[in-house]
Amino acid sequence: MYTGRMDSRQLLVDTMSELMWERGYADTSPREVRKRSGVGQGSMYHHFPTKRDLALAALERNVADLLPASSELDGPGGPMARIEAYLMRPRDALKGCKVGRMTQDPQVREDPVLLAPVARAFAQVHDRWVAVLREAIAAGELREGLDARQLAHTLMAVLQGGYVLAIAQQDPGLFDDARAGALALLRAAAPSVPGNENNGRN
Length: 202
Hints:
By secondary structure, the chain is mainly alpha-helical. The radius of gyration is 20 Å and the shape is elongated. The model is unreliable at 1-6 and 194-202 (pLDDT under 50). The chain is built from 9 helices and no strands. α7 crosses α8 (148-169).
């Protein structure tokens, strides 16, 4: 079915990516990767001599999936509209974050090479959050004096924590509550309109 060398390599990476998302690195075996992908042992070890080599390629793939989504924060429209769209876009809460999931795997946490793509991805997403929050402050959509770097970490923590709550209770509504609550807090941080102190209370 997959005759090209690049085809089998990509299939292995895609399969490892999905299995790590479902089970984590420690609980994913090379045999399971071969079984699900249909790629033979010889081809697998040609491309990836070790499980760690394959895992690193899969992590890079997961990071590549995460970063385009966060680029929505840099897109067209007003900054608060982009923030709301990014916070509330559809996500599979019970599967969790492909990248954040890896921080719960002890073998990834204890391996600086495997952890590096995860740390880099979150640093890049944080930079995008900081930029859009600063834009919202400059546009008068959020109050002056807010610390955009702190607020960016808070919003990232809400999303990652929302996944944990939803998975623990097997209830995606908890994830929805967490991000809706974050959005409500952001709206509460909008500057008050002079002469309209009751705005939003009625």
